[in-house]
Amino acid sequence: MRHPVLLKLCLVGAVALTGCQGTRDAASKRALKSVNVVDESNLSDIMLTVGDPDEAVAYFQKSSVENPDRIDLKRGLAKSLIRANKPSEAIGVWKTIIASPEGTSEDRVSLADAQMRTSDWAGTEATLNTVPPTFETFERYRLEAMVADSKKDWKKADSFYDIAAGLTTKPSGVYNNWGFSKLSRGDNAGAEKLFLEALTYDPSLFTAKNNLILARAGQRKYDMPVIEITQTERAQLYYTMGLAAVKQGDTSVGRELLQQAVDTSPTYFEAAERSLKALGG
């Protein structure tokens, strides 16, 4: 009589062990899946920052096809396309993201950025108009400022540039763009102040240095400002200053500045030499 009971207990134990094994397998699979997601997340971050842009595009395209429901992979693809200088392709991806239930205001701003990169100013403005006014970010106001600039709405442009500068810890690019806006309006003195402001945040920003020279030359200030520059940069800035002087009719001053560019450069400054020859110097 004991054998059937023992057999029954053994069977129950076997079923229980099978159940435990199944539970452990499921738990193991979940754990491995979690690890894979973490690894994939790390890989995605690498692809979006230091990875080769074209390789990043290929990675996110493949991953998006394999995981069509993963909106984060679509965002990665759109950002990678921007890094790879393919904004037209990125626009299509951003529009797909925005059309989904998971689309956000940040995605709309990213779409506007891609549209601006293709010089679609009307599209950029239309997209920004769909972003709620309560969504206040640096990127949003940077784009708003540039749209206002394109429409020559200087009052709005100044207001948006000012807001954008206050929303980032690295406003050098904003001040440089704002300064260039002032330069295009003919406000050379205002532009000079903004380029100097840009350089206080990023002394290595050569674009701001070059723009600063143009703003000063527009005021017939032909001396080199006190800024942090390398020997090569100094030669390039003398060259910019010389051309600006010639353009304003100060030919003799321009010739001297071009000669300084040649003398300052540690290597043969071919462009300045050509300009000097054209002036008979």
TrEMBL record:
Stored InterPro entries: TPR-like_helical_dom_sf, TPR_rpt
TPR repeats: 235-268
SMART domains: TPR
Keyword set, alphabetical order: TPR repeat
Signal sequence region: none
SUPFAM superfamilies: TPR-like (SSF48452)
Keyword rRNA processing: no
Name this polypeptide is given: Tetratricopeptide repeat protein
Organism: Cypionkella aquatica
